[in-house]
Specification:
Blueprint: H1 2-11, H2 13-48, E1 53-57, H3 61-68, H4 81-89, E2 93-105, E3 108-113, H5 116-122, E4 125-128, E5 136-139, E6 150-151, E7 154-155, E8 170-176, E9 187-190, H6 191-197, E10 251-256, H7 259-268, E11 274-277, H8 279-322, H9 324-332, H10 337-378, H11 388-413, H12 417-422
Helix pairs in contact: 1-10, 2-8, 2-10, 8-11, 10-11
Length: about 425
Amino acid sequence: MIRFVLADLRRLWAGSLVVVLLVALATALGVAVTLQERALRLGSARAADKFDLVVGAAGSETQLVLSSIFLQPSPLPLVPGKVLHDLAEDPRVAWAAPVGFGDSFVGHPIVGTTTALIDGAGGGLAEGRAFAARPEAVIGSAVALKLGQDVKPMHGMPGEGGHAHAEIAYRVVGRMASTGTPWDRAILVPIEAVWGIHGMETAPEPAGHDHDHDQDHEAGADPAQEEHDPGEARPSAIGGPWSGTTPGVPAILVKPKTFADAYKLRGQYRAGATLAVFPGEVLTSLYATLGDAKKVLGAVAIGAQVLVAAAIALVTIVHVGQRRRQIGALRALGAPRLALFGIVWTELFLLVAGGVLLGLALGYGVALFLSALFTRENGVVLPVAFAPADWRLVLALLGVSAVLAAVPAVMAYRQPPAAALRA
């Protein structure tokens, strides 16, 4: 019977291929939607997991998280510098790192911050050292630069009509370990340098700052244009101490010491001119939006599968009708009815099941492609993988396929041989 089925499929290869492709495309649509939505949830949750609390100026919670954690370029209102000072001095805070945006280098966002964020967001350095002077930078693992190379910042992102900052060039002195987050594509520089090139008042230097090194240079010389050894840090007011006159920043990433401290800080700075959010809470609301979109796309996928199932049922019924003489001849030659049922059912089930399995592969491939494209553009690694629920869906599809294949098989089973030969 199997040899007969295979021979029949080879003879009718064009029609069989059409049926397989129809089923595969309908299945791939549903699989790709499911896998991509799940990957986006997991990838974004992992990216935000490194940050406990974000403090910014009153405004949109979603935009604050997208800009400060996922590094999506967008103008944010500045939170007063006094907030940064208060957080840095708060005994409930392990560390508070400002983040300043606005500049880029060949598509990589330049983020002004402090060395505390290198350990907090990047998990430490893979090579080199942290920046210790204004014209120094630490790059993410996905930035195609080497230690010792220069970074010339441009205001804004490419294509936005920005201009280059000629007054400073950062020297790469370190590279962060890979995190699978947008920070792998970022270039971290001292927040004081960002304030300086944008004409903002810089924070005061620490008490006891050694000016002997500065006396070796002409008065008024721009330190950003001086030649320096990347392995030797020059004295500079990097990382504070902050004061009430510190310039404003778009956002502050905060690491509370305890779980209770996180909620207390959130309540304290979630009023008036400031906004404090847990990134996970904001992502939950985004996931709800994604869930609604998934329902719509899922309904479209189910509708496509129903239409394909109806088309296949129609094609197979017509196919059985056209083979009435062949079926009648087999019955006249002594083929039992169960054998005819098995031949027709096996042939149709192989076609539909083959389409389902091909659709799984196509959907998985599409999800991988979209995830890789998203990672390249945004830096968030999206893990694409099947879950147990997906395999239950596959079994359900195969069960439906078995039922659909039985309809024309029953028609062939009940067909009298004499009537078939007269057709």
